[in-house]
Amino acid sequence: MGWASRICGAVALVAAGAACSGSPGEGRAPAPDTSSRVASTVPASSTTSMPAPAFGAGFLTVGDEHACALDEDGRAWCWGYGDSGRLGGASGGDAAVPVPVATDARFRTLSAGRTSTCGITTDGRTLCWGGNARGQLGDGATGRGTGDADRPTPGEVLGARAFEDVAVGQLHVCALDGEGGVWCWGASSSGQLGAAVGGDQTAPIRAGGDLRLVRLAQGGDTTSCGVDADGAAWCWGSNNFGQLGDGTRTNVGQAEPRRVVGDHEFEALAVGRTHACGIDLDGSLWCWGRNEAGQLGDGTTTDRAEPGVVAFDLPVRQVTANDRVTCAVTDDGRGWCWGANVEGRLGDGTLDDHAVPAEVAGGRRWRELHAGEAFTCGRTTDDAVFCWGTGQNGRLGDGSGEDRLVPVPVAVP
């Protein structure tokens, strides 16, 4: 669930998957020198040739247990765990290779969450499908405790608003309108909708008062974040581990957006289950929140309620986060992951946890990485999609169902 891209300069959770251009390394101050703490764990055997052609995509998003991508024509494909209809396929069930989402719509962006998926079409509609236990499909229905309102094929979000960005969290969704206004729907138990409401919302409501943002981060479990036009980061929702980044910790959810402390000009954010990260204007990467597996990347396992710099001397252009894991792409196109190495999702050929960045094996150059619950997927600079980690429910998309410690190509459907 979580990702962001600095080079696209668009929405942090989806636009990293779009084709980008420009010179991201220009006009930047040096990042903090922490090179001695970067892990060197790439096995010598990791540079073997690609065993099969990889699925080519112009866009990629990863949820907790499934992944989706857009082909060159804007058609959506998904694979992995199919419970609740989150893959959007007409046949339902799990898929070990990409299956087409059952719609004629063409999409320009997608966001995959825990049990549902949403996308914005080329004609400006917002469509969602999958689990709807807390109203997260935004269609006015809810099936709390029953699953009766789950939707296995795309349906339109109520309100007929033309959203520019959408971010799917665990059981809630937030979106930006054309003026930067924030709208959210779904579960509200921890303040993740950004408004003081009495219960779950089955259609979009205005969040954050007068707050205007230019991009969102993936919604996290029960925390949402975004960046305003000045580069200030704002977060709302759960704050039990300091993941709002305002210097406080509280077991009570915060519906009012809090500004992340520090003199930062963030260009992109990513939100994990209980931590968050942001890329500053100079390419340095900062993280805050829970750190029990080293997911903050500072060489410790100490939680932080405000941003701390990650152990990189390399400028970062894209970041993603999920449960106890963070991954990033540096300006040279190399991929790095750190935190809990559940089922090999760090991609370095080991099962070892890392409290500092470890390079993804294989020597490939990446546009973007996206971390799931126990797997990770990435899109290379030539738009090939690879995944690694657990193959349970087919979430690696290679047709095998096997676990992989290093990247393997997603099968061509």
Q: Can you offer a commentary on this structure?
A:
By secondary structure, this protein is mainly beta. 0% of the residues lie in helices and 41% in strands. The chain is built from no helices and 29 strands. The chain has strands spanning 4-5, 59-62, 66-70, 76-80, 95-100, 107-112, 116-121, 126-130, 151-156, 163-168, 172-177, 181-186, 201-212, 215-216, 223-227, 233-239, 250-259, 266-271, 275-280, 285-289, 304-309, 316-322, 325-330, 335-339, 354-359, 366-371, 375-380, 385-389, 404-409. The strands form 7 sheets. A 5-stranded antiparallel β-sheet has the order 1-22-23-24-25, with no helix packed on it. Strands 2-3-4-5 form a 4-stranded antiparallel β-sheet, with no helix packed on it. It starts with a strand and ends with a strand.
Secondary structure blueprint with pairings:
Elements: E1 4-5, E2 59-62, E3 66-70, E4 76-80, E5 95-100, E6 107-112, E7 116-121, E8 126-130, E9 151-156, E10 163-168, E11 172-177, E12 181-186, E13 201-212, E14 215-216, E15 223-227, E16 233-239, E17 250-259, E18 266-271, E19 275-280, E20 285-289, E21 304-309, E22 316-322, E23 325-330, E24 335-339, E25 354-359, E26 366-371, E27 375-380, E28 385-389, E29 404-409
